[in-house]
């Protein structure tokens, strides 16, 4: 069994209706659903049968998935283009596992965890005060990419768990307007800053950190304010010290934790400062439980493996190019953006581990939005264009607001969309409906085609009992493992991101060209754009 033969296998599926799969199988929902770590997955609305699933399990076996899972968790150098292990999972495991996997290096990891714990305690209790002797009120987290999305998704998901009284503000994009928007609202004397940069060389993060540093120095008479109010999380202690941070305020990172998988490390310091140590532990515990499930459950009952294989089926057998992430919960509004990075930066590749061109498609284009806003925007295309877009619906059974009617309607909309996307509406159904409403036959023939819906869109529905640190941890770990499994089956390295480098290099060339440097290696189009930008500067 290999990926290339999947499209042959899918011939029957291409012409079959998903809804027909329910009529012949009274147990479909029971057999096509699974629970673990506070999550329930219903995948019965996927266009797949038992025989086809079995082929996918065989594909997982021939891809040596079980060995690859073991290799990841035991710390083998599976990121072979950067010669690194991939061990973010160890950060959420008990200390005895840390010691077993990391050996002597576990000491630094455990000590860093402890240090982070103490910082959170000292700041929330007021044992650690600002340079002016006041209690901190706000935190600015500065970072981008993997040093940003995890914190952002967890901060917005866990709003009801913001218990320490500190407010977090996240700055990522290199746009002065975004920085100013935050700074105008803040008091430098009571604001703590955490710079998160694994490399401490990222242009956006360093420029934003400098802007915040200048703002703070301008608004304080105490020149030691940076030493007293700034923390950093980085592998590059030297650069962070040169920036002006005290060594004891720099928490280490390790090259075996990829940026987009780093929420489980000290990168989460701003989050822990807001939700407290206990809630941060629970977030890691939820992820750890998912890790245990992923390592131990047979593939047939393994949630990340199943979701990965269903994704492979949709991408490589049915040849669908997209994946919509639709959380019907305001708390998960940042999830689509987070998963865009985790999925597309990991698996948006077209060469194998050994550098050969792959003969199959890899990561889907991931997009999404919180429901029901999505229904009033791009979901029109999902219902009526020719494009079939597999979807993950994510919903919490228990809402967090005091408006229960809202929650019921929200959930009803979620369930309605997965049904509508699967069921669609045939032209005959439209004609009958219009006739029953007394519409004339001329009008029926004019309108019927416009009102039909293609249906047959496959979806998963993920139910969380409620939003909690544990359940969020489980959800994020679920997607991390799903992406890993897909990388294994696609035979690529999910853990590098060379694709972002060319843009960075050319960004520097263009910046120098804007300042009078050589433009000859740039296209006429880019030269013209630079000229227009420089002209606009001269005018103002
Ligand atoms: O943490 P750093 O080193 O500032 O890097 C930021 C981000 O930039 C990337 O290298 C590329 O977008 C991400 O993988 C990383 O998370």
Describe the structure.
The active site is at 345 (proton donor), 376, 504. Belongs to the GPI family. Its EC number is 5.3.1.9. The structure is a single chain. By secondary structure, the chain is of the alpha/beta class. The chain is built from 24 helices and eleven strands. The chain has helices at residues 6-9, 11-14, 20-23, 28-31, 50-62, 65-74, 88-91, 95-102, 106-125, 149-157, 176-183, 203-218, 225-229, 237-242, 269-296, 303-317, 335-347, 379-384, 404-423, 427-436, 441-451, 469-490, 501-514, 524-539, and strands at 33-36, 39-42, 138-142, 167-171, 191-196, 230-234, 250-252, 322-328, 365-368, 391-398, 459-466. It has a six-stranded mixed β-sheet with strand order 1-2-11-10-8-9, with helices on both faces. Helix 16 packs across helix 22 (469-490). The longest helix is centred in the middle third of the chain and has 28 residues, at 269-296. The protein is globular, with a radius of gyration of 25 Å. 43% of the residues are buried. The model has no long low-confidence stretch (mean pLDDT 97). Bound molecules: 6-O-phosphono-beta-D-fructofuranose. The site of 6-O-phosphono-beta-D-fructofuranose has 13 residues, from loops.
